[in-house]
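Standup notes, protein team

Yesterday: finished cleaning the Selaginella moellendorffii set.
Today: HMA domain-containing protein structure.
Blockers: none.

Input for HMA domain-containing protein:
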Amino acid sequence: IARTRLNVLGICCAGEIPAIKMILEPLSGVEDVSVNYTTRTVTILHNPLLTPASQLAKALNEARMEASVLHEGPQKSNPEYKRSLWLLVSGVLLVLSFLYLFYLPLQWFAIGTILLGAPGIALKAVMSLKRLRLDVNVLMLIAIIGAMGLQNYIEAGSIVFLFSFADWLQLRAVKKANEALAFAADLVPQNATLADSGLPVPLKEIQLGTLISVKAGEMVPIDGVLISGESSLNESSLTGESRPVAKHVGDNVWAGTVNLSGYLVIETISTAEDSALSRMIKLVEEAQSKRTHTEQVVETFAKYYTPAVFLVATATALIPLLLYTSYESHWLYLSLIIVVVACPCALVISTPVTATCAIAGAAKLGLIIKGGDCLELLASMKVVAIDKTGTLTEGHFRVLDFHVVNSTETPKSELLQRIAGVESHSIHPVATAFVGYVRILGIKPSENVADFKILEGEGVSAVVDGHLIEIGNTRLAFRRNWRTSIFSQHLEEYEKQGATICWVGVNGELVGHFSAADKARSEAREAIENIKNSGVTVLMLTGDNQNAAACVSHQLGGIEFHAELLPRDKVMIIEQLKASVGTTAMVGDGVNDAPALAAAHIGIAMGVAGSAMAMEIADIALMMNDLRRLAVLRTVGKSYRNVVMQNIFFSLFTKLVVVGLAVAGYTPLWAAVLADVGTCVLVTFNGMQLL
């Protein structure tokens, strides 16, 4: 199954989306069709052996949709010269026709405008009628034919020009939404320089583990780990933050970031297709194609609105004729105005154009929102639950000490070697810190590790050199009956300082314990205050002990917390919050957070530093580990909701005004078309303020 994206310039109204699906879905091998009206793209999942990409584009081009296949890598500008030239000629002819007041024969220039633009509208209208659809092309064609039937060629030409001009203007405007993301992707070099030979190699040929070099001023072409050199990198393409970030040996560097100084040697950790920047762009593209709940409600309304208003227009034209009333031309003219009013384009695009722009605008700030529904939920968010370790805290632990308890024949160095061997198989920040602690002591972790297991909510275990090693928290200690009053007072002192206590057992017997300390993120307190000021309740969820949780809570201003939680306990609390408070968000970065992220109304993962599982399950990803972006998310959601409401109001209010003025005899047909297409342009530009 292949995923093909088509650029479809001929989509002039969101009402044409069903027609596009009707054309593509019956084709052999096509499994799914997703249309993004705002960016004029169509994404198709299909079997290329049964239906190649060129055939998909051909099927749409037969309906005058101006489709072309989008290829990976830098995109050349779409050839819009013919469209722009045609529009210019059409406009000149129409302006000349308005000079008929000075020289009557000039009115016939309007027919030139009609001949240039009407055939394309007519062909699309015929394709829609074949599929029994009443879309904007059918409505505009009726208006054009009606105006010509009344021998008002200038108004017919005005309809053609205004309709085409509005489509061209929207196409130019929404191009900014594409460029907002495509710009960063297009800047990424298509070649990487091999560190050993200095030869450039195409990115698609670079394998995992390849050593590449990046000079000062160059852009990192692919994700990797810094092997040699030091520098500061501009990561604004990913995070939206242009402040230089210092990089040292062992740090991760990301494709699309710029090396500001120094010569770097990088070992690649991903392919070009799986880089952080590529992943971000793919997530945003997929998000922009998803339909929101509001969008579905509006489309359902439009589905019945258009036929209903069209029937009213038909009745307005026929009933006076059947009753032999006078001024038949007046009623026919009024019916044509109502036909134009029946076009729901502005209403239908009011939500998707806003969602697309909001998602693209958020992406420039390093906020990856995976769909318009998330935007709607952000606006109504009541409470946010935040994981402690690695989210509210830095997640960079340091081991304070290691105590051997009970008599044991195993030398301490050998015991540390075995414990480090188990911890080296874990991704928990405490485990990483302990392995580093042991290496500093000059001890290499044991490689003879077997039967590694994660003890849910307790810790880890494995067999090392034939011995069962168990490492875990207080819950494991109580289950194993390791924690006695002899050690309690000593350990509680560490816990009150915010340290995490880990117990170690060999073959079921307690042999030692160690403590590791973490600290709250520097921006965490400010971030929590900002969230609270926006009217959202904040609480902390953690599997750590009560004393450590209380210490972090105190550092952050005394926020509510729940400690010593299993993953299922976090899910239960999230479900309770959803039922009692309302829209609930969960913020986390680790594997243990994944169930809670999935359970929340809004799951938010801590970006490129977060786990792959959390990134996959979450609805929103922070590409930068800055909790202050949570308040920005809230602002983006509220701005999106306000703009959507404004657009819906503009769309409906304009229709009502046009009908009212038309009934009173003050609205010419061209003015009704101008009001309709003008509203389309208005809601588009109103949505673009979110870019």
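Follow-up from PR in the comments: The chain has a mean pLDDT of 84.
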